[in-house]
């Protein structure tokens, strides 16, 4: 990717290799490789230098396929490929081997990616670093056999795009690998990840693909990074994705005149950056943009959807500058992943769905005063539908209202929280719930009351979507309640003396 990572060396030093005592190689040189990737696949980038488990984040996000970034050499002039250029993370089963096994067991797979902005600007992208085509090919083959993968990604940008000798070496090495794979009964796909303008590849990207054609190196997927345009223009990021991809299609048509339109669209991949990209707020990719791109991608039949990067798919830093750990916009964790997930496999149109967020998600108010926050909804799949909003978990001495109480997904509402002097000091967890055709989605709002004269309930507030079992206690409308048996959705105090909830009195 095009991000400048000044802390990368420090982060790389913190990576802990996966413990794999006694683990053998995931694949053999002559063995048939793993099942090929689906014709349509969602495979977000995973920042492998952070020390996080790719298998854990894959399971949490629902993104079954990951593009693992990055593989490069430790120093310029070397022909040895390493994860992040670190000798602590060699190409070996001990590095991410268990994670890859777990991802496959869950129905997914990984795409190792060579290069990236740092490697491409420091001479450590392997074809820039190594001048021996056979050794470059051997490095590619080692990754394929070690991890038994069926696709390698080449993230080529910045200085690497301008190094014509390295471009030629890389494509010659790819041709050798493809011949080796055919002789050994392996399926191996090659994707190129390249920067783009809003109208398609720049000349350097076109020259790279032209060189691949001349060398007989098959390019299965051309991924374009539809962000970081740095052109000081006004951007509709979803529309820009469509025009950039159309420009790529038009160029591929001249390079591969024998391919059908469906085959050409099937060579195209899209990589977005959730939220604010490196240029700044003028280039912000929203959840609404994600839904538009998804629907367009399904219609066109493109090969791959991705984004940079999985660790950014959360709303932990709304309004902050672009970074590697969050999207810089209000969102729920994994919202972008959930929009793109259905693309894997058939690439069918998504079921209408939505998200709910509170911005800000916390507030403080003196007893007797009030505060507000904005409740935002967004379309995360399909079309916009009506969402009915309610708020729960409101303690005694506090009232909460929403205006409006019903919105079309993509709209917003104002949550007003008013308190009396009798409200107890403390922090309360309010839940805003949206209900639509896809079900319920919720957001948390933490309210801190200061200077109150009441007594605070200590049990967790009751919420309608939680399952409770016999003996569990909740607080609701200033009282503590105990469940007599399993229940969900039954409001304390609404089922009478013989109902599920026993009133333990005011708190």
From TrEMBL:
Taxonomic lineage: Bacteria, Bacillati, Actinomycetota, Actinomycetes, Kitasatosporales
PROSITE patterns: GH18_2, TAT
Organism: Streptomyces yunnanensis
Pfam family, one: CBM_5_12
Residue span, GH18 domain: 40-347
Protein name: Glycosyl hydrolase family 18 protein
Gene3D superfamilies (UniProt xref): Carbohydrate-binding module superfamily 5/12, Glycosidases
UniProt signal peptide: 1-21
Gene Ontology MF terms: hydrolase activity
InterPro entries xrefs: CBM5/12 (IPR003610), CBM_sf_5/12 (IPR036573), GH (IPR017853), GH18_Chitinase (IPR052750), Glyco_hydro18_cat (IPR001223), TAT_signal (IPR006311)
Transmembrane spans: none
PANTHER family membership: BIFUNCTIONAL CHITINASE/LYSOZYME-RELATED, GH18 DOMAIN-CONTAINING PROTEIN-RELATED
């Amino acid at each position: 990717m095009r991000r400048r990572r000044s802390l990368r060396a420090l982060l790389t030093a913190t990576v802990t290799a996966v413990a794999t005592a006694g683990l053998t190689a995931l694949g053999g040189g002559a063995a048939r490789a793993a099942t090929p990737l689906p014709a349509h696949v969602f495979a977000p980038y995973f920042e492998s230098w952070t020390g996080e488990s790719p298998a854990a984040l894959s399971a949490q996000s629902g993104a079954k396929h990951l593009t693992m970034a990055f593989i490069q050499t430790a120093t310029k002039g070397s022909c040895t490929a390493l994860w992040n250029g670190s000798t602590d993370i060699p190409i070996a089963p001990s590095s991410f081997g268990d994670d890859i096994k777990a991802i496959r067991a869950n129905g997914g797979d990984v795409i190792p990616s060579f290069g990236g902005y740092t490697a491409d600007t420091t001479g450590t992208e392997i074809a820039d670093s190594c001048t021996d085509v056979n050794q470059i090919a051997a490095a590619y083959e080692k990754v394929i056999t070690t991890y038994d993968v069926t696709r390698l990604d080449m993230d080529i940008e910045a200085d690497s795009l301008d190094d014509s000798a390295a471009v030629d070496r890389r494509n010659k090495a790819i041709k050798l690998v493809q011949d080796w794979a055919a002789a050994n009964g392996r399926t191996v796909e090659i994707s190129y990840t390249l920067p783009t303008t809003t109208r398609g590849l720049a000349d350097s990207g076109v020259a790279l693909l032209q060189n691949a054609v001349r060398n007989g190196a098959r390019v299965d997927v051309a991924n374009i990074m539809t962000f970081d345009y740095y052109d000081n223009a006004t951007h509709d990021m979803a529309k820009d994705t469509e025009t950039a991809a159309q420009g790529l299609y038009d160029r591929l048509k001249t390079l591969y005149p024998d391919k059908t339109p469906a085959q050409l669209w099937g060579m195209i991949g899209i990589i977005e950056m959730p939220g604010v990209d490196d240029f700044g707020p003028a280039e912000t990719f929203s959840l609404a943009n994600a839904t538009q791109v998804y629907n367009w991608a399904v219609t066109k039949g493109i090969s791959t959807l991705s984004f940079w990067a999985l660790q950014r798919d959360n709303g932990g830093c709304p309004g902050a500058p672009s970074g590697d750990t969050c999207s810089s916009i209000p969102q729920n964790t994994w919202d972008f992943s959930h929009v793109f997930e259905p693309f894997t496999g058939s690439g069918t149109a998504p079921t209408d769905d939505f998200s709910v967020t509170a911005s800000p998600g916390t507030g403080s108010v003196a007893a007797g005063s009030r505060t507000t926050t904005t409740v935002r909804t967004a379309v995360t799949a399909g079309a916009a539908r009506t969402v009915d909003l309610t708020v729960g978990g409101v303690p005694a001495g506090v009232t909460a209202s929403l205006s409006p109480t019903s919105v079309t997904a993509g709209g917003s509402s104002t949550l007003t929280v008013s308190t009396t002097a009798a409200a107890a000091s403390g922090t309360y967890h309010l839940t805003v719930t949206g209900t639509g055709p896809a079900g319920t989605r919720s957001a948390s709002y933490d309210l801190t009351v200061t200077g109150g004269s009441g007594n605070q309930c200590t049990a967790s507030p009751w919420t309608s979507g939680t399952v409770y079992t016999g003996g569990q206690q909740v607080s609701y409308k200033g009282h503590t309640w105990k469940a007599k048996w399993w229940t969900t959705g039954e409001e304390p105090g609404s089922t009478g003396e013989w109902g599920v909830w026993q009133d333990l009195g005011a708190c």
